Amino acid sequence: MKASLLSSVLLLLALAAPCFAEDPPAFLLQWGSYGTADGQFRTPLGLGIDAAGNIYVADSQNDRIQVFDGNGHFIAKFGTTGTDSAQFRTPLDVAVAPDGSIYVADYGNSRVDVFNSQYHFLRQWSHPPEAASCHSPSTRPATSST
Questions:
Q1: Can you tell me whether residue 125 is helix, strand or coil?
Q2: Which residue in 35, 45, 66, 142 has the fewest CB atoms around it within 10 Å?
Q3: 146 and 107 in contact (C-beta within 8 Å)?
Q4: pLDDT tens-digit profile of 72-126?
């Protein structure tokens, strides 16, 4: 039994060896620096890519989404700080649908904002603050043990 198990493990390692022998992915490109100007970031988190290869970055501490071409050249930005439509409070992620609609997960406002491919606000999904299910440890409601 032990010999059979050992030979199975060795066979798996032999089959997996080519996976470990491959070179790591090659570094291709980087852009941006710390700051608030176009093309600069303060805690970039999520990325989305559209059908044309443009890259959308959730620039979370700048409360905006920045858009770049596939070579990292700045194209546009949208969003400002706030709680109204098309405003963000710590956007965490961004995704682009096949039809070009842009979905932004806005952590601070507890919602998902939807924009068209021209960066115009369309709608949002959200919950009232009392219905929110996520709380940071310092804001978690007290519970009773009785």
A1: strand
A2: 142
A3: no
A4: 999 999 999 999 999 999 999 999 999 999 999 999 999 999 999 999 999 999 8
